[in-house]
Write a structure and sequence with these properties.
This protein has about 270 residues and is α/β, with parallel strands linked by helices. It has two domains: about 5-120 and about 250-260, NAD(P)-binding Rossmann-like Domain (Rossmann fold); about 125-245, Dihydrodipicolinate Reductase, domain 2 (2-Layer Sandwich), CATH 3.30.360.10. It has helices at about 15-25, 40-45, 75-85, 95-100, 105-110, 125-130, 155-160, 175-185, 190-195, 245-260, and strands at about 5-10, 30-35, 65-70, 90, 115, 135-145, 170-175, 205-210, 215-225, 230-235. The strands form two sheets. The chain has a five-stranded parallel beta sheet, sandwiched between helices. The protein has a five-stranded mixed beta sheet with strand order 7-8-6-9-10. Strand 9 and strand 10 (about 230-235) form a beta hairpin.
Amino acid sequence: MTLNVAIGGFGAIGKVVAQRLDQGMDGVTLTAVAARDVARAQAAMTRFARRVPVVPLARLCECADVVVECAPAAVLRELAEPALGRGRIVLALSCGALLDNMDLVDLARRHGGRILVPTGALLGLDAVIAAAEGRIGSVNMITRKPPQGLLGAPHLVANHIDITGLTEPKCVFTGTAREAARGFPANVNVAAALALAGIGPDGTSVEIWADPGVTRNIHRIEVEAEAARFSMQIENVPSEENPRTGRLTALSVIAALRKLSSPLAVGT
């Protein structure tokens, strides 16, 4: 059985995923994409071995069994609602926006759809998911990013936090994963994924640092649970096209699609 896949968003993540699917992957085929700049996406399609149509977000579900959301968080519903209403699988990268749209889970349940959250630029979600089957006392995440990767975040704008010209690390946020997702919608979907895997968005604590001394997006997770105590750190190379996004995120989506169609799946 071959899964038809449509991709919503044709930027730093969506384009990489589309190119990999165009190269060929067993059990998965690309059938459509949606893009904010339709002309640019159509021009990019001329370099694909198998061109697919560029369609509006809401029509992706007409072309696919699986809809991959790589778009800005603000358009999550526009893509996910019609797809879930048709019983499709939605791979949602804007899981920060999902926290404020959890009724989409009920929609998926009613129509036989599914929302899958890829690991993205994080690590250790399997361990957190397993620990959550028991009792977890605390989950903390500390994120450090080059200042240019945080510029324009709503939390910084609303609180008049200036991170230009920094010469030393500056903590720009402390709070819950829910608050972090709202204040940094393009930066810390990892915090939302961690929260969904563990003890929820209001129980997961997050610190965000603008650090001129780093060149990678660094996430450190510390978990205290009944079954285990563990800490993990990952240092992601930022995407050349969008420094807010790590290169690993697109690869995580590709791995998730491969897992959907593979006769062997590794991991919880």
